[in-house]
User: Fold this.
Amino acid sequence: MAEPEVRIEGFQAVVDEALQDIEMAGEDDAEVLEVEDAANGDGADLEDAGQVGTSARTTFVDYLKSPIIELLVGQGEDQTLLTAHQALLTKSPFFADAVAQFSDEATTRRIEFANEDLDAVGCFLQYLYTGEYFPKKIGDALESDPAQSMNGDDGEQLLKHAKVYTLADKLGVMELKSLAHSKVHRVNSTARGELAYARFVYANTPRTDSTIRKPIASFWGQRSHVLRHEAEDDFRALCLEYPEFGFDVLSFVLDARERKGVEAEPKSGRKRARAV
Assistant:
């Protein structure tokens, strides 16, 4: 007895579509095989294909293989010769431009840093090789430095980081500049130390550098009524030497008063009425 024929509506269309997909997949496989055959012909095409989209990773050893650059820091008897690898130095736009001036035949590659601070340059080189410089940050503080007092009257620690900050700005290494600025705010100092730091900053930074100048104005604007009595002569001398410092502090105080709404109604500056 013959089995009854079963028909499912639309089934044939699904089968035809599946067969068509299989045939197309077969064509794609054929193309893949052709590519593989071509690549396996002499190996050249495969080698080229492996190079596409692949960039060589620069290792630390690669940096150390680069030419040595001499840095002559300071002047006279204090002049010191330092060395560093070119591939690391050229991370700085300043040094990249300087190195570009050397000829390929040059046997000695030397850059003079006559007016730079030796310790600041050393911190810069330490940062290039390690990503940090001494003293390192430990939470909200800095690791202790046996060679310097953390509360020195002369502001040694503040000046150290301020010099690294200005050098990093000159060399175009913004990450180091930010790191140095963050360390400034982790140093405890005295009124005289703060004034020495403020004097250096106002002498070596442009007026537009509010990143480092504004916190100084804020510091003295909030504490000047107390701290200036500890070093009143030095405070007055700094205001006279750098009027921008005095103006910034005064602006901070007046702005603070305005925000608190405690300023008096404006009055005439006239001392007596005009005669009628």
Observations:
- Residues 195 and 234 are 7 Å apart (CA to CA).
- The beta strands are 68-73, 80-85, 110-113, 137-138, 141-142.
